[in-house]
Amino acid sequence: MKQGGNRQTEKLLMERSVPGRVGTVLPDLDVPAQAMPDSALLRDELPLPEVSEPEVVQYFTGLSLLNFSIDTHFYPLGSCTMKYNPKVNDEIAFLPGFAGIHPMQPVEQSQGALDLLHRLQGFLGEITGLPAVSLATLAGAHGELGGMLMIRAHHLANGDTGRTKVAIPDSAHGTNPASAAMAGFNVVELASDKNGNVDLEGLRQVAGPDLAGVMITLPSTLGLFDTNIVEVCRIVHEAGGLVYGDGANMNALLGRVKLGDLGFDVAHLNLHKTFSTPHGGGGPGAGPVCATQQLAPYLAAPTVTKQGGAFALSTPEKSIGKLSSFHGNFGVLVRAYTYIRTLGDAGIQSISANAVLNANYMMNALRGTYHLPYDRTCMHEAVFSADLQKERGSSGLEIAKRLLDYGFHAPTMYFPLIVHEALMIEPTESETKETIDAFIQALIDIDREVTENTELVNSAPHSTPVARLDEARAARQPDLRWKPEAAA
Length: 488
Ligand SMILES: *Cc1c(COP(=O)(O)O)cnc(C)c1O
Description:
By secondary structure, the chain is of the alpha/beta class.
């Protein structure tokens, strides 16, 4: 990654300190001077950098640019939809009436905010074809837990206590089995067939009186539309089970396919992937749950209802209860609402058109160079295998690291687990053909490098501020603090 000519971040702020230099000027004292607290409460030594304001701005801006981000780089992280999110959505979320509102404010004073949430519930119900919506859950996995608790509540309300099993495909996101287990179910794995669809024969074998339901990601984490999906829903319903949809990555289906029409009973969306909140790094999210009218009584509280002319916060009749302190991550919900309103019907459809077109364009350009285990039209992402490169000495990991030198964030690696040396690439709907072409070329160049100069690839990245980290340790014990020499 290129840095500015004067390498602003090379010298730590503390090391630039010059005694007496200040970054701010305090106004004259206009209140009575106060005595200092007891000196026992004060530190003798408090090393703070003495620097000018521009130095502080340059230093921190420089630091922020050391990382890859969607504002600076193409970020093809499959199953995560790291796309450009229009800045207008942030601007609206920052409006004082939205940003400053307090969740404990009485509903009479929050009618505008509740109106927005009520409309958003309606939009998401329309988009998914699952009209009963709760916005209270704060992440995709959180929505999954909510949906699974609803399925459980539904069976128990019917006196159906023997439904202890939830079947989940082997291509599922890791959160699916975790959520089902947290909701108290035993998880059974469903095999995928050779086309990447759910294996119907395997499903029929588990579809019995102990099956509570299945959890299906659509499109699957192989980036594929399961062409058996209607039959999957039919088999599960016939056995008395319910179908949960993981709609974390809905950008391939928006405005074209409704989960409710396919037979899903309950699903979650990741507003922080599909509906415009940049995520990653653990930022705020929203994983609303959308369900059929039949499951509406079980939704997590609160939902926003309209009674007479006024909006109210309600607890559905047989609600699974509250899953978060208040009404969801309001700022994320405002962004999603703004996004949907600014796009309109036609714009929503263009998301899925471009997401699928971009992914297929990229897939077809790379299919001769990288192995494509499931070779069929993809949805918003394509999953390659680096097996051919590994035979020549470079694994998927080495290729991903080398991409950083080309100025691209790495794709998702080693997921889904059923693809060997997986490279899961999502160009997203918001990138230009020029960017996608440059990315394709980089992967073709790296393939050539694997043959001609394996060591160059296997010691990458060469251009980043730090090279190969112990990734687990870097995440668990990040080194974020400047320490004085002596204590270091
Ligand atoms: C991201 C993702 C999730 C989990 O979402 P979080 O907000 O990270 O909890 C679940 N399923 C799929 C398919 C995903 O891509």
